[in-house]
Design a protein that fits this description.
The structure holds two protein chains of two kinds. Chain A is mostly helical. Chain A has 13 helices and no strands. By secondary structure, chain B is of the alpha+beta class. Chain B has two domains: 227 residues, 3-Layer(aba) Sandwich (Rossmann fold), CATH 3.40.50; 86 residues, Nucleic acid-binding proteins (OB fold (Dihydrolipoamide Acetyltransferase, E2P), Beta Barrel). In chain B, 27% of the residues lie in helices and 33% in strands. Chain B contains nine helices and 18 strands. The chains are: A mainly alpha, B alpha+beta. At the A-B interface, helix 7 and helix 8 of A face strand 6 and helix 2 of B.
Chain lengths: 276, 332
């Protein structure tokens, strides 16, 4: 094959051009946010090449003194607790659905899928009314429970498919070896399905961490989460773009190491890796 | 002790009865093989004894005590699965120690028993490896190690050699037989391979469509099959069956002649035929012969000078011929 031909080169060049276009599409907004976070308010809308040295950490200092760190902590706590509770409830539920001869499993799978697919706005009005009556507005339990409506179906659905790949003989073997069903789950099934468990936990955490809608409806002051808190930088007469950029970086940064660590588990989980 | 009694046990899945009421006595220390074609219910029966499958009726007694409703963990049985079912995240040592850990045994005692089991099964060098780093035979030995370490009342084997290649299967067959002689424990072994059944069993239980067709020692089943199914299932190559006039000549609806009980001559005999395939193994010669009464197989000792296309005459040994009536039952 003549790999120096014009057609080959044109094909290769168009491929590289497409990749560069996608790269720019993905990376430019991040670069823009980074530049915004380091620019003083007076230079925000100047092109960077006109005053490349006009950089400041004032936006970071301003954020540190605002209510945003507290909101970030709220996000971490509520998303973390919602994920942990969803795993505690969802993993055994998924195990039961995957491995027992329950009647109505088909119905359960459709209900779960419906919950996963339904837009959160569908739940908001009844949830809001219930929360008003139950005194759950602007409380951590209220927000955590709302997040669990997102995370629990995700955990059950994804763990159900993960557990379905675990051979029944592995569980039966543990039962023959003297384990109870709970011990078989904890000591044998969950470790064997570790990639799926980690992937479910991380995806659940990300859904709750990135939630804006429920937090906007439920939180008022002390429980405000980071995505909602970013809105506080927008007032009726100005938008604090510098602080918004810093806040966006603060919301994104903690996720990056988690995703790097979790990446291989998610890939393994998606490729269904359970080796005997 | 490891005496197991099945009293009228049965199993249904919805309206489908897979095991009609069935009774069986397994003595302490016996090596019993459940054998039958695929779908005959042998694995289901084993799983019912293990407690992994609920019974729909009847009783399972282990050492005289009703174990029908006991969970698997409390029946005192150990099971070796076809797929080995080793815990992939644990080392060989931890796999073998798992039942001891579940029994709450102190760690030092666990280590001692694991080392003993590893020595018996030649696994000492592999104790720190994970199942994924072992060969099929080694994995099977780990599965057996995990079963023997807790000294169960009885061992249950569910087609444990099916995933191994032919040479390894023969080795493991010998190892399991030796293990039985050493441990003197009750073993129930499920297989669809009648050679495994014949070579390993003290007692064979032949199952067909969930029913016990016959129970007996390997040679008893070989020499005195109760019906056509047992006669055809036991023995390799399979018994030849001939119906019609040749059978009527011997006063039977069907006659059965084992391939090794057919005399072969190139000059004269009872049934003339043409050799379609001649398999020369050195120690034996297998002939597939097309006759007027259908295809008949003959097994001859040594290397016989007969080849594809040759005309031969086959003569059954009347003294050890099997006669069956119209219902397929052996005639007395």
């Amino acid at each position: 094959m003549d790999d120096k031909s014009f057609a080959y080169r044109a094909k290769k060049a168009s491929g590289i051009a497409m990749m560069l276009a996608f790269l720019a599409f993905a990376v430019l907004p991040i670069l823009w946010v980074l530049i915004l976070s380091l620019r003083p308010a007076t230079a925000l809308f100047e092109p960077i090449w006109e005053s490349p040295t006009n950089l400041t950490f004032d936006n970071f200092r301003g954020i540190a003194d605002s209510g945003f760190p507290r909101a970030l902590l709220n996000s971490f706590l509520t998303a973390g607790i919602a994920t942990i509770l969803s795993m505690i409830v969802g993993v055994p539920a998924a195990f039961a659905l995957a491995k027992s001869r329950l009647r109505g499993k088909f119905v359960a799978s459709w209900v779960l899928l419906l919950l996963r697919m339904a837009p959160p706005v569908g739940f908001v009005i009844p949830l809001f009314l219930i929360y008003i009556n139950a005194g759950l507005i602007d409380t951590y339990p209220g927000l955590i429970m709302a997040y669990m409506t997102l995370t629990l179906p995700l955990v059950v659905w994804s763990m159900w498919t993960t557990f379905a790949q675990i051979p029944n003989e592995l569980i039966e073997s543990a039962l023959m070896d003297g384990a109870s069903l709970a011990k078989a789950l904890v000591l044998v099934v969950i470790p064997a399905a570790r990639p799926g468990v980690v992937a479910a936990a991380i995806l659940g955490f990300l859904i709750a961490w990135n939630d804006f809608f429920f937090a906007l409806i439920i939180t008022r002051g002390s429980t405000v989460t980071a995505p909602v808190s970013i809105m506080n930088f927008i007032s009726s007469d100005s938008v604090d773009w510098g602080s918004i950029a810093v806040a966006a970086i603060c919301v994104t940064l903690p996720i990056i190491p988690v995703m790097v660590i979790a990446n291989r588990y998610i890939v393994q989980s998606l490729s269904g890796a359970v080796k005997g | 002790m490891g005496q197991i009694t099945l009293r009228e046990v049965r199993k249904s899945f919805g309206a489908t009865e897979v095991i009609p009421p069935l009774s069986l006595e397994i003595e302490d220390g016996e090596f019993v093989v459940f054998v039958g074609p695929s779908g005959c219910g042998k694995s289901t029966l084993l799983r019912m004894i293990a407690g992994l499958e609920d019974i729909s009726g009847g009783q399972i007694l282990i050492d005289g005590k009703d174990a029908s409703a006991l969970p698997p963990a409390r029946r005192g049985l150990a099971m070796v699965f076809q797929s080995y079912a080793l815990y992939p995240h644990m080392t060989v040592a931890k796999n073998i120690a798992f039942p001891l850990r579940m029994a709450g045994m102190p760690a030092e005692e666990q280590d001692r028993l694991v080392e003993n089991a590893a020595r018996v099964l030649n696994l000492t060098d592999y104790l720190d490896r994970r199942p994924g780093q072992l060969s099929g035979g080694q994995r099977q030995r780990v599965a057996i190690g995990r079963a023997i370490v807790r000294k169960p009342e009885a061992f249950l084997f569910d087609e444990p050699l099916s995933n191994l290649d032919a040479a390894l299967r023969v080795n493991m067959r010998l190892e399991i037989t030796e293990l039985h002689a050493k441990l003197e424990s009750t073993m129930i072994y499920v297989t669809h391979d009648q050679v495994e059944a014949m070579t390993m069993a003290d007692k064979i239980v032949i199952l067909h469509a969930g029913r016990i067709e016959q129970v007996g020692t390997p040679l008893d089943l070989y020499h005195n099959p109760r019906n056509l199914f047992v006669a055809g299932f036991i023995g390799s190559p399979k018994m030849n069956f001939i119906s019609g006039a040749p059978a009527a000549a011997y006063g039977a609806h069907t006659i059965g002649v084992r391939p090794e009980h057919l005399d072969v001559s190139t000059e004269a005999g009872l049934w003339q035929g043409r050799v379609t395939v001649a398999e020369h193994l050195g120690s034996d010669t297998f002939l597939h012969v097309q006759t007027d009464h259908g295809q008949l197989n003959a097994r001859l000792q040594g290397d016989i000078d007969v080849y594809h296309g040759d005309t031969v005459w086959l003569t059954p040994n009347e003294a050890i011929m099997h006669r069956f009536d119209a219902d397929g039952l052996t005639m007395k």
